[in-house]
Amino acid sequence: MRPALLVLAAFPVVFPSAGCKKDAAPPPAAAAAPAAPAGPSVGLVFDVGGRGDKSFNDAADRGLTRAHKELAARVEVVEPGEGVDREAALRQLAARKLDLVIGVGFLFTDDINRMAADFPQQKFACVDYTVTPGKPIPPNVLALKFKEEEGSFLVGALAALLSKGNKLGFVGGMEIPLIHKFRAGYTAGARHVRPDAEVLVTFAGVTGEAFANPGKGKELALSLYGKGVDIIYHAAGSTGLGVFEAARAQKKLAIGVDSDQWAEAPGVVLTSMVKQVDVAVFDAVKAVQDGTFKGGVRELDLKGGGVDYIYDEHNKALIPDDVRAKVEALRAEIVAGRIAVPNQ
Amino acid sequence: MGELLAVLAGALRISTPYTLAALGGALSERSGVVNIALEAGLLMGALAHAVVAHASGSPWLGLLAAMAAGVAVMALHAALCLHARANHIIVAVGLNLLAVGTGRFALKALYNSAANGPRVDGFETTWWHAVQELPVAGTVAGTPLVLVAILLVPAVAFLVDRTVLGLRIRAVGQHPAAAETQGVNVLRVRWAALLLCGLLCGLGGAYLAADQHQFTQGMSAGRGFIAVSAVVFGQWRPARVWVGCLLFGLLESLQISLQSSSVGIPGQLVQMLPYAMTLVVLALAASRANAPRALGQPWPAGR
Fold this sequence. Notes:
heterodimer; A: about 350 residues; alpha/beta; Rossmann fold; six-stranded parallel beta sheet; B: mainly alpha; about 0% strand
């Protein structure tokens, strides 16, 4: 299947996928022959950082790949450059009357709002859509949101329990409310298990570029490690790859984000706070296929498995059983609603 | 004390790509060719380093490839400016855009990603490993290029001020007609200056990719333009240009350190610091009074 996606990816707009006729009745997924896939047609536009960021965008890619495999969805992806490319890419996909157009990342919020007004019949989904209080979400837009603060709370607690000192670090990408959710949860988690914990907070910048500047990420992390921090949590897209570089060089620990990032720096990535962007994307495509797609906000939380942290055969050796038990106890408390995790 | 050392080490690392690109920019502009394509040289150098180091497994081969890529960018610059007599600024803008597109294209074609390439082995797999283990020097010796950049400052200064080629570069930048009456081939000297510029930019790009063990799209992130500012700040004199690069590197390093300190300045203000200071410094220190007189003028004139 990969090669098929590959070809589509290489020519995102020029070549519509084979048999991409809107009026072709979609046969059941199980009956779909490989030669004539006929699930829902889905267009997806990636965020800054793009596919191969081994983080946020790759998670969306996995969801789409799964939709292609299991639902025979016909997928097209666009990796835009800076600024206005995003809107142009969305518009091109929307104009082709696909069944669903997905924007990956909060930066798409305004673009999707505009497109939703211009194409009222088109279904849109936006990962990390920013809801503005007092401003209704267009009826044809599904906002996929996550309780990042809950997952971040757990990795914060984990880091504080494992830290040899009382200093932890945080490297954010662009300084925006979304990234502050990660920061707030992480800090709260650390302080919950260790009231004297100090979390040193840095950001790579104030523009979208701050998610794609690994050189800056490395310097930020080196500076934090130099100040006695021994574990850094990043929420910075491919800027975070620089954090891992610093962790490798300093032989310290780092915490990944969005996807399981162990493979980026084995032995150095303590755990990753994962957002099930893949599940969110897959479910959105499935809803379109089942005819149950509805606009509005869908928030994925710890309780529903929308956010979590990684604990598997790779990083087991880094996390002692008693620490794991304490973190799991905290999970139960959050799920039960006994701990309210701040998001600002 | 340890914190101060860390800030200084950071400044040295951050200023390395600035220094390499800015020395190249100074050479190019002393010969009379305006060069704001340093960004393109850095980005292509980084790409070539990562691709070749990944394919061959040798960072040293990557270094050579990076230099070749930088030279290729500046050869294009030379061909268009010196022979097609195109406007230097326009050519450079085109080259910068071309570099961004080439980076994306190469990533897509080679690794099926528009954003990131695979991890490449750095210099730690070679004999350079021994240097990285040194106690203090190790913090700035992730790649040999930090040291190379520092050594190249006196080397380029010597080239410009004390050699025949340097004299000719200065002459064709000041008064190409006079230089020609002395038998100097103006275009050939400008070609030489630009190719050397490309070599230096390529090294700067190699630093970026080697330090990160990876090429990521747009990883030069405006560093080439900071180098252009440093050239003006340093009044086209290599040693002073270097001081400018160190200053910009220091401001950035300070910003990074201040963010996580408990000084209580709002984060946005701290992050603005390097840019605000760059403006202030350029406003105070820079004038075009000492610019090469024939800067940006085509040769032969008046065709």
